[in-house]
Design a protein that fits this description.
By secondary structure, the chain is an all-alpha fold. 47% of the residues lie in helices and 0% in strands. It is built from four helices and no strands.
Length: 110
């Protein structure tokens, strides 16, 4: 304020203070108009509390990481279905290949 008195001068200071007041009122009016338009555009589903949750100033990375690391809730365990187990093949039950015969090969399995 003291710097403004020296730069502007005591005779012009009231006029600039009035202009500053008008500017502040105009900006406040524009902000209120924008807020009303948002409410009109959003309709009845508009909830200011939900918008406050999305405010980026409330996010503290340290708090988010701490909560994630100290989360005591156990993760849900998904049980995989047990595969059908075939009877083990004994060496005597395996078919023997004749000499020079190649093992069966399934081209679609690879």
């Amino acid at each position: 304020m003291l710097i403004a008195v020296f730069i502007i001068g005591p005779e012009r200071l009231p006029r600039y203070a009035q202009k500053l007041g008008e500017l502040v009122r105009r900006v406040k009016s524009m902000a209120n108009t924008a807020k009303d338009r948002v409410r009109d555009e959003m309709g009845d589903d508009f909830d200011p509390e939900e918008w406050k949750k999305l405010d980026p100033r409330q996010y503290d990375p340290r708090r988010i990481i701490k909560e994630a690391l100290l989360d005591d809730e156990p993760e849900p365990q998904v049980r995989a279905p047990k595969p059908a187990v075939a009877a083990p093949i004994t060496p005597s039950a395996r078919p023997r290949l004749a000499e020079g015969q190649t093992a069966p090969y399934d081209a679609e399995a690879t």
